[in-house]
Amino acid sequence: MKRKEEILKSIERELIVSCQALPEEPLHSPYIMARMAYAAMLGGAKGIRANSIDDIREIKKAVNLPIIGIIKQVYDESNVFITPTRKEIDLLYQEGVEIIAIDATNRIRPDGKVISEVFPAIREQYSNQLFMADCSTYDEAKQAYELGFDCLGTTLSGYTTYTQGTKLPDGELIASLVRDFPIPIIAEGGIWTPEELKRVFELGAYSAVVGTAITRPMDITKRFVKAVKFDLEG
Ligand SMILES: CC(=O)N[C@H](C=O)[C@@H](O)[C@H](O)[C@H](O)COP(=O)(O)O
Fold this sequence. Notes:
This protein is of the alpha/beta class. The protein contains 10 helices and 8 strands. β1, α2 and β2 form a beta-alpha-beta unit. The site of N-acetylmannosamine-6-phosphate (LRY) has 16 residues, from β8 and α9. It is an enzyme of class 5 (isomerase).
């Protein structure tokens, strides 16, 4: 594994493509996600964001790019589902990914604790590992910065009850994080067009993750269908 600085340097001003399909999604398959990642690499992506050990393992065989690894795991007790407990963090660390992304919202986690209670021990134990904080607000990102995360992502803006309805991509959040925190700000969530991607970089994002617009054909199809229906109705 490369040094932290080298990894971050390799994604600076570059596109990261998220290749994810949950069990209920049509493309759920490590094989398909690895091909998606390969296509993204050929297209010029410089990083891949991926969910689950099975997908990550397959993706590693197909591409030689840094991976932001997550494990989405839903527990009954909590709404936190992106790398929510110590168990998922340990699994990702053992598997080996360049960056581990964790839900860094203020919500109670499945173990009954909040991020400020659990992260210090993780930071200490895995001091050589890069961690990305998946945040939904400025205050969450501020706390994540103070806790020692290596980069801050806007991943969860619009996806917590208190940010629902936020227009994505959340340019305001990106700009305020760029202004106030001297670590890489990763724009993620709701980037649908090349123009929006360009815009988040203009706002100062260090790197940007695009998922659905590139790797979820069902959602892409829906957008096209909706456009036509709208025209017919409107
Ligand atoms: C909220 C949540 O669960 N986000 C997930 C995080 O990994 C993914 O489902 C998104 O696809 C990813 O964040 C990229 O965003 P978008 O697909 O909008 O480009």
